[in-house]
Specification:
Elements: E1 21-25, H1 32-44, E2 49-51, H2 72-82, E3 86-90, H3 93-101, E4 106-109, H4 111-114, H5 117-127, E5 134-137, H6 144-156, E6 162-166, H7 184-192, E7 198-200, H8 202-206, H9 212-221, E8 226-230, H10 248-257
Parallel strand pairs: 1-2, 1-8, 2-3, 3-4, 4-5, 5-6, 6-7, 7-8
Bound molecules: phosphoenolpyruvate (PEP) and manganese (II) ion.
Length: about 260
């Protein structure tokens, strides 16, 4: 179905001492103080990279839509103090230009962008000739071809360091999860692109913090390479995704309780 694409191992472009790679941080960068204090707490846990949304693609208007460029200098300050790579969601060529100007290390394409080939192609064209790793979340709907297409568009733009993020799929009938994991979809993706690194985002799959551990363990049982877990100092009062964020203390427990499946090869 798809041309043979070859992907570099995650460990060749993000430093992490042991599997899984852990990316943690708040759903949204709310204030400079929040970002800095969260980053300090996460540094103590030895996470491998930080995350925070600054352009937030909210499904409905009148929710917090992110601080935008105002938050970029905060990221610079955090990077200077804690020295960890920082990942941010981008959705337009303008976002890419601004994020790179401020030294953002890793870009990710959100589920509401992956769903739109015009949007993905615009992003891909803006990434041509730019050396930055790109994480590609699954599309919001359970459509494997859109995920594959987004990966191909970014790859064809010459981006060398790519990973997929599995964040679950929206369905009309809500079950246990905010977004149904449909594990067979990422499993199928891996049969098409066997060396594509894959990261699980249990926060957006679960939608509730009590589900994060089991979802993370399931991802590791399936030999995923990494986890992206939303972490907030005061989750109940988070400006976005309050129900699913965990405190740094809870993240530490989750990480220490996970049983890592070692690759058999
Ligand atoms: C997020 O990571 O905060 C986010 C908005 O993710 P998604 O695109 O998976 O909904
Ligand atoms: Mn979120």
């Amino acid at each position: 179905m798809s041309a043979n694409l070859t992907f570099k191992p995650l460990s060749s472009w993000i430093k992490y001492d042991q599997k899984p790679l852990v990316i943690a941080g708040p759903c949204s960068a709310e204030t400079e103080e929040q970002l800095l204090n969260t980053a300090r707490a996460l540094k103590k846990l030895n996470v491998d990279a930080l995350r925070a949304g600054i352009w937030k693609p909210r499904t409905r208007p009148n929710s917090f839509e992110g601080n935008g460029v105002v938050a970029l200098p905060w990221i610079q300050t955090v990077k200077k103090e804690v020295g960890l790579p920082f990942a941010v969601e981008i959705a337009t060529p303008q976002h890419i230009e601004e994020a790179l100007k401020y030294g953002v290390d890793i870009l990710w394409i959100g589920a509401r962008s992956t769903v739109n080939p015009f949007n993905v192609q615009e992003i891909a064209d803006a990434l041509r000739g730019v050396k930055v790793p790109v994480l590609i979340k699954n599309p919001i709907n359970p459509e494997l071809a859109l995920w594959i297409g987004a990966i191909e568009r970014i790859y064809n733009a010459g981006v060398e360091n790519i990973a997929a993020i599995h964040r679950g799929f929206s369905t009309f009938q809500k079950g246990k999860y905010r977004n149904d994991p449909f594990w067979q979809i990422p499993i199928e993706l891996k049969t098409i692109f066997p060396d594509l690194p894959i990261i699980c985002d249990p926060s957006h799959i679960g939608g509730k913090r009590d589900l994060i551990f089991d979802l993370s363990q399931k991802a590791l049982d399936l030999n995923y390479d990494g986890l992206m877990i939303e972490t907030h100092l005061d989750p109940d009062n988070a400006w976005s995704d309050a129900a699913q964020q965990v405190t740094p203390d809870r993240l530490a427990e989750i990480l220490s309780d996970l049983k890592i499946r070692q690759a058999s090869s």
